[in-house]
């Protein structure tokens, strides 16, 4: 399931309509925009909206976990730019007659996750309607001294690394994942990160975003992709590998670095708490999967944002 042509066209239209003024350093197209808010570091801005029935099931997860996820996906966007989160605001559309307890539990989930990354939850808005729960978080962050890492810097010959196992996130990880903020910042200190993205839609789909923005291609080695045990629990006909390529909501990071930096990072594993995996390389064009030495085209499989 690739990104629908209608949505891709709309995103391109939005980018054409959005003028970048002197304060805008990065406009639409990356995991966060960047605006100049001081002489020292740009302000990074990102927002995500989550819908009951699509991004979560409130009746199954409960409001606290929903609030946690809503904040975590935005923190993950900061990780995807190797940036430090600073503050966030949250807006919720509450089901009418849902009660004060729902709103309180949502807040606890939001604030606990925010505070665990020293991020201030500074405000927002509430409303009610006849539909299901809708929650939108906007997060503000700042780049480090090395600047934000974008999707557009990958180069032919770069190694592609990933920060953890993939697939089967529906069995709990999509609600309980830990945003890779600290890991991204540490990697940014240790190596020249050419490109970075978090895996929200799926490994193949999100890697394709890097390729599109960087003007290159990529080849993945099937035997090197770290497959989560949960990817084998699904009851459909897709293989664990296909789930690792396409499930999404793992919120691990795809990192593009030089071969030398990639080799050093893989050999030394210098980031506590995670294992880095070498899963492929950047090539001139196309998206490919190498299986037993045979290369075949790979569709940008992932979550389908159908309208």
How are the elements arranged and paired?
Elements: H1 5-17, E1 24-26, E2 33-36, E3 42-51, H2 58-61, H3 63-79, E4 83-95, H4 100-115, E5 120-129, E6 134-143, E7 159-162, H5 173-176, H6 181-190, E8 195-198, H7 203-214, E9 217-221, H8 240-246, E10 253-257, H9 259-268, E11 277-283, E12 287-291, E13 294-297
Parallel strand pairs: 4-5, 9-12
Antiparallel strand pairs: 1-2, 2-3, 3-6, 4-6, 7-10, 7-11, 8-10, 9-11, 12-13
Helix pairs in contact: 3-4, 3-6
The radius of gyration is 19 Å
| CATH structural class of the largest domain | Alpha Beta
CATH architecture of the largest domain: Alpha-Beta Complex
Q: How much helicity do the residues have?
A: 25-40%
Q: What would your notes on this structure say?
A:
There is one protein chain. By secondary structure, this protein is an alpha+beta fold. The protein has 2 domains: 125 residues, 2-Layer Sandwich (60s Ribosomal Protein L30, Chain: A), CATH 3.30.1330; 139 residues, Alpha-Beta Complex (Phosphoribosyl-aminoimidazole Synthetase, Chain A, domain 2). It is 30% helix and 27% strand. A 7-stranded mixed beta sheet has the order 8-10-7-11-9-12-13, with helices on both faces. Strands 1-2-3-6-4-5 form a 6-stranded mixed beta sheet, covered by helices on one side. A hairpin with a 2-residue loop joins strand 12 and strand 13. Helix 3 runs parallel beside helix 4 and helix 3 runs parallel beside helix 6.
């Amino acid at each position: 399931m690739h990104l629908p042509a209608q949505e891709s066209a709309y995103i391109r239209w939005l980018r054409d309509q959005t003028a970048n003024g002197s304060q805008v350093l990065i406009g639409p197209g990356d995991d966060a925009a960047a605006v100049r808010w001081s002489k020292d570091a740009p302000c990074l801005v990102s927002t995500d909206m989550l819908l009951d029935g699509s991004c979560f099931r409130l009746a199954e997860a409960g409001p606290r976990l929903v609030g946690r996820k809503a904040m975590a996906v935005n923190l993950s966007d900061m990780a995807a730019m190797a940036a430090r989160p600073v503050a966030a605001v949250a807006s919720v559309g509450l089901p009418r007659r849902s009660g004060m307890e729902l709103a309180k539990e949502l807040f606890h989930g939001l604030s606990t996750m925010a505070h665990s990354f020293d991020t201030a939850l500074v405000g927002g808005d509430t409303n009610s309607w006849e539909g299901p729960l809708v929650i939108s978080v906007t997060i503000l962050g700042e780049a480090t001294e090395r600047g934000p890492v974008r999707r557009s810097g990958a180069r032919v010959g770069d190694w592609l690394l990933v920060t953890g196992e993939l697939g089967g996130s529906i069995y709990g990880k999509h609600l309980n994942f830990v945003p890779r903020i600290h890991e991204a910042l540490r990697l940014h200190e240790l190596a020249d990160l050419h490109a970075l993205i978090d895996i929200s839609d799926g490994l193949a789909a999100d890697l394709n975003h890097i390729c599109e923005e960087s003007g290159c291609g990529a080849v993945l080695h099937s035997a090197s992709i770290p497959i989560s045990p949960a990817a084998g629990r699904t009851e459909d006909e897709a293989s664990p590998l296909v789930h690792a390529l396409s499930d999404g909501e793992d919120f691990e990071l795809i990192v593009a670095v030089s071969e030398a930096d990639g080799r050093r990072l893989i050999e030394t594993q210098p980031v506590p708490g995670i294992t880095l995996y070498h899963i492929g390389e950047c090539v001139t064009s196309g998206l490919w999967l190498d299986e037993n030495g045979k290369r075949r085209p790979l569709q940008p499989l992932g979550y389908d944002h159908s309208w």
